[in-house]
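Title: Prediction job returns without error message
Component: structure pipeline
Severity: low
Priority: P3
Assignee: unassigned

Description:
Job completed but the reporter wants confirmation the result is attached to the right record. Sequence as submitted:
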Amino acid sequence: MLIECVPNVSEGRRPAVITALTNVIQVPGVRLLDQSSDPSHNRSVFTIVGDRTSLQSAVLSLYARAIADIDLRQHEGEHPRVGAVDVVPFVPLSGASMSDCIELAHDVGARVSSEHGIPVFLYEDAAAAPHRRALESIRRGGLTALAGRMRSGEWMPDYGPAAPHPTAGVSIVGARNLLIAYNVNLETHEIGIARTIAAAVRQSSSGLPHVKAIGVRLAERGLVQVSMNLTDFEQTSLLTVFEAVSREAARHGVRVTESEIIGLVPEAAITTSAARRLRVRGFSPDRILEQRIRDVS
């Protein structure tokens, strides 16, 4: 059984903390495929694979380290977040089913809440109700707004207390299919342009199917970014998304400088020649999920 897990942690600026998080996640039976950190987003994303037991051990170690090192009261960053360990999705690969990942999400949620007092919300295929499936529905308005919904009883966690942890917030754990985190960078500092383009391309605003998008600043680079998740790359490809963002950017007189893939990308979603057309920053074959699994096997 092989399951992928892609924890998103609210820390992308302190190298010593990022190194500590990277180290604790590498328990026996787990292979670290990728780690990326972004200071503007102030976020790190890890890609690991393993069986259910090993992944649970790795993720629980990550929570313990993150809770010790991250205080959301001091956290600033462009990316939406509600927790120190913000999102933990489990993805079925070879020999694993979605049911396996749903059970694992429940197991991890129960352990995290009981051991650390952190409220846990289950999302996507692990969600208890349709209106709780979407990540953005849970994170709507940020931690402050979510805490208010928890106090009112409108949104109760699946596991844990009805109030956020004082320093670690809440955590969102779930089961889903493969997803591509994809960003397109624009040669302008006008955040309004990025937000307008994001609204034009995302599904929730009648844009492209299976695309979630927000506009964010990259202050240290003097750029803005359309930051996206592609939840079904077979229905809406990377090229379709890149061309749509490029067209919208041209309407505003703005040039697309490059695009980025955060984490790994399925083999079926991209080729080296396509990566050049998409202007993917730093692309190489080791960005391919299946290749990385072969490399570490």
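Comment from assignee: result matches the submitted record. The first helix runs from residue 15 to 24.
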